[in-house]
Each structure stands twice: as structure tokens, then as C-alpha cells.
UniProtKB/TrEMBL annotation:
<dbReference type="InterPro" id="IPR003593">
    <property type="entry name" value="AAA+_ATPase"/>
</dbReference>
<dbReference type="InterPro" id="IPR008995">
    <property type="entry name" value="Mo/tungstate-bd_C_term_dom"/>
</dbReference>
<dbReference type="Pfam" id="PF08402">
    <property type="entry name" value="TOBE_2"/>
</dbReference>
<dbReference type="InterPro" id="IPR027417">
    <property type="entry name" value="P-loop_NTPase"/>
</dbReference>
<protein>
    <submittedName>
        <fullName>ABC transporter ATP-binding protein</fullName>
    </submittedName>
</protein>
<comment type="similarity">
    <text>Belongs to the ABC transporter superfamily.</text>
</comment>
<dbReference type="InterPro" id="IPR003439">
    <property type="entry name" value="ABC_transporter-like_ATP-bd"/>
</dbReference>
<feature type="domain" description="ABC transporter">
    <location>
        <begin position="3"/>
        <end position="236"/>
    </location>
</feature>
<keyword id="KW-0067">ATP-binding</keyword>
<dbReference type="Pfam" id="PF00005">
    <property type="entry name" value="ABC_tran"/>
</dbReference>
<keyword id="KW-0547">Nucleotide-binding</keyword>
<dbReference type="GO" id="GO:0005524">
    <property type="term" value="F:ATP binding"/>
</dbReference>
<keyword id="KW-0813">Transport</keyword>
<dbReference type="InterPro" id="IPR017871">
    <property type="entry name" value="ABC_transporter-like_CS"/>
</dbReference>
<dbReference type="InterPro" id="IPR013611">
    <property type="entry name" value="Transp-assoc_OB_typ2"/>
</dbReference>
<keyword id="KW-1003">Cell membrane</keyword>
<keyword id="KW-0410">Iron transport</keyword>
Length: 347
């Protein structure tokens, strides 16, 4: 493995930022650390970079112990590239000088210039090599930060919320470009993000964290389709949660009965109905509902639907080409295999 954390714990006074975290990242793999603010993502990244020393446990790079209480390799000797949320470009240096800076002490003078220019061209900024950071847009600054980090060809690239300062449209473009560049360079990469879409679009594997611990590790598809808990499920989808009791292996709800595998008979459970899993059918078929609000979102409509016996509204996304109006009666078809069921309180 390229990078591994072995039982890493990190305490800051009373706060346990990481609690015995173990994780192996394979060479060339892109891993996203995903979780809410304060769950320990950045601390894990800082331990890999060597700007923090663990309270307990080991960090291994290429199988070598670089950060245990007994041995420590300084950040600049780890061969690790860093990209920060605020890009951390030197304002008084040009784009070329910023990227060259990352090569100092690794590549001799003339070769450094050529290497830096190649990295700048690779991120599409050849024309801006002599510009200063304040003359660049946010997206361009992010590309410079990326070029600076990859130019020395680090074995491991660590990125902390690299897209969070970009607006949505630019974010999509820069994220896809970054994914392509990471694939091309083959660098083992760890990306910290709180955005599940970022994680799903860029990472081979996602590590979902909570309160200093790993909740689940898997591909985006696994985490989305087979979340280990209600907490994990909520992270990836804004579904309608419906409480009910388990009776003969299924949870009974106003929307129907949904299989509750492995849950105790008579226990309280939560069924999670994904907005796009619900099919709208003509009234008189399936479960009756009434459209309370309808918002046009472009490719799909977002509907809130009232259903007898449910005191909130069911959230549905469907492409209806404007045929449905508010107040209209409809039928609802909810395929049981699209509904996730968890024990109540499994958060
Ligand atoms: N140097 C420090 N001193 C004291 N507490 C710290 C320090 N660094 C982090 N913490 C605490 O450790 C916990 C984890 O912080 P960390 O920055 O790793 O979380 P995060 O998931 O990256 O959050 P964010 O997305 O907000 O950056 C938090 O409770 C934080 O307040």
C-alpha cells in the first residue's frame, strides 16, 4: 500500500479528533475523506502530511513508518504534495514562480523551469504563466495550486477541500479536470470534502467519517446503495423518513410494507423513501396522494405530496413535463427494493 494509518488516535487536550483510525490506500488510488465539519478529516490529512504527530498509532508511507511516537519523518522529506482550500499561493510570485517553488531542492534550475511550464500548460494556464495570483479567477488559482502540487510528481497528493471556494458550475469543471489529471499522474491521492457529490465524482473509494471514527468505506455506489446506517444513508440522499413497526419481517408505514431484513419483530424502524424512487401513476392506481407543491427544476420537477396517515409530505422528483398541477390527485408506486430500512435511532 502507498499510505496507511494504523490505529491512529489524535487528541487535542480534551478533544479526541481521531479515535484509533485504520485505513490503507493503494498506489494510484483516489480516496475521499467525507464527513461533516469537525469529524477529523483535516486532522487525518495533516498526519499524513507530517504537520501533526499522532498521539498514538502509526502512519506508513510506502510501508515505512513515518510518524509514530518513536520515529518521525519531517513533512518536506515525505514526498507528499499538498493542495489547500485557500490554495495558499504566494501573492508576490507569478504563476511560474509559484509552481517552480514546489520544485525547489528537487529539480535543478533549468529543468525546474521546463517542468513548471509543462505542469502549467497541463492545467491550461500557459498564457498566464507570468500573471500574479490576484489577476486570476478562483478556478485559475485552484489550477495553479494543483500544478504546483503535481509538478514534483509526488507519490502521494493530499487535498483539503480543494473545490469548496468555487461556484457550482466552475466546481464541476475543475473537479472533472482534477480527476483526469490525477488519473494521468497516477499519484495516490486523498481528498478531504464534506460534499458527497465531490466524493462520488472523483474518488475510487469513499471513507465516511463521523466524530473521529470511520463509519463506512466503499465505492460511491456501495455507500449510496448499501449504506451501513441511517447516518450514512442520510449523507447521500435527501429522502423522506417514515417511522413504523416491524411486523412479520416488514415495516408497516402509510406508504406500504417494506422488507426489514435482520430487524427484530415488533421493533421500531425507519423506512427511507428516495425522492426519485417514487413513480407517479394515474389516480386510482397504487397508493393515493395529492400534489401539494410542484417546483420546476429543469430536467425534473420536485413535488411535495400529501398521503393519508402521514403527517408530513412525501418528497418526490419526477419528470412530468408540466402535466401535473398543484392540488391534483395522483397514484404513487413505490418499488419496495428501492426503500432502505434501518432500526429507529440508528444514527
Ligand atoms: N490544533 C487543534 N487544537 C485543538 N483542537 C483541534 C485542533 N485541530 C483540530 N481540532 C479539533 O479536532 C476535531 C476535528 O477537527 P478537523 O479539523 O480534523 O475536522 P474536519 O472534519 O476537517 O472539519 P472541517 O470540515 O470543519 O475542517 C474538531 O473538534 C476540532 O475542533
Amino acid at each position: 500500500m502507498a499510505l496507511a494509518f494504523d490505529g491512529v488516535t489524535q487528541r487535542f487536550g480534551e478533544v479526541t479528533a481521531l479515535n484509533s483510525v485504520s485505513l490503507s490506500v493503494e498506489p494510484g488510488e483516489i480516496v475521499a475523506l467525507l464527513g461533516q465539519s469537525g469529524c477529523g478529516k483535516t486532522t487525518l490529512l495533516r498526519l499524513a502530511a507530517g504537520v501533526e504527530r499522532p498521539s498514538a498509532g502509526r502512519v506508513l508511507l510506502e510501508g515505512k513508518d513515518v510518524s509514530s511516537p518513536e520515529s518521525f519523518v519531517e513533512p518536506e522529506r515525505r514526498g507528499v504534495g499538498l493542495v489547500f482550500q485557500d490554495y495558499a499561493l504566494f501573492p508576490h510570485l507569478t504563476v511560474l514562480e509559484n509552481v517552480r517553488f514546489g520544485l525547489q531542492g528537487r529539480v535543478p534550475g533549468t529543468a525546474a523551469e521546463a517542468t513548471a511550464l509543462r505542469a502549467i500548460a497541463r492545467v491550461g494556464l500557459a498564457d498566464l504563466a507570468q500573471s500574479y495570483p490576484h489577476m486570476l479567477s478562483g478556478g485559475e488559482q485552484q489550477r495553479v495550486a494543483l500544478a504546483r502540487a503535481v509538478a514534483p510528481r509526488p507519490g502521494v497528493l493530499l487535498m483539503d477541500e480543494p473545490f469548496s471556494n468555487l461556484d457550482r458550475r466552475l466546481r464541476d469543471v475543475v473537479r472533472d479536470e482534477t480527476a483526469a489529471l490525477l488519473q494521468e499522474t497516477g499519484a495516490t491521492s486523498i481528498i478531504v470534502t464534506h460534499d458527497p457529490e465531490d466524493a462520488m465524482r472523483i474518488a475510487d473509494r469513499i471513507v465516511l467519517m463521523r466524530a473521529g471514527e470511520i463509519v463506512q468505506i466503499g465505492t460511491g455506489e456501495t455507500l449510496y446503495r448499501q449504506p451501513a446506517s441511517l447516518f450514512a444513508a442520510r449523507f447521500f440522499c435527501d429522502f423522506t423518513e417514515v417511522a413504523g413497526r416491524v411486523v412479520r419481517g416488514a415495516v408497516d408505514t402509510p406508504f406500504g410494507r417494506f422488507p426489514a431484513r435482520g430487524l427484530a419483530e415488533g421493533s421500531e424502524a425507519v423506512a427511507c423513501i428516495r425522492p426519485h424512487a417514487v413513480r407517479i401513476v394515474p389516480k386510482g392506481f397504487c397508493l393515493p396522494g395529492r400534489v401539494v407543491t410542484r417546483r420546476f427544476l429543469g430536467e425534473v420537477d420536485h413535488l411535495l405530496i400529501a398521503v393519508d396517515g402521514f403527517d408530513r409530505l412525501l418528497s418526490v422528483r419526477a419528470s412530468l413535463a408540466g402535466v401535473l398541477g398543484e392540488g391534483e390527485d395522483v397514484g404513487l408506486d413505490i418499488p419496495t427494493d428501492e426503500v432502505l430500512v434501518f432500526p429507529a435511532g440508528d444514527t
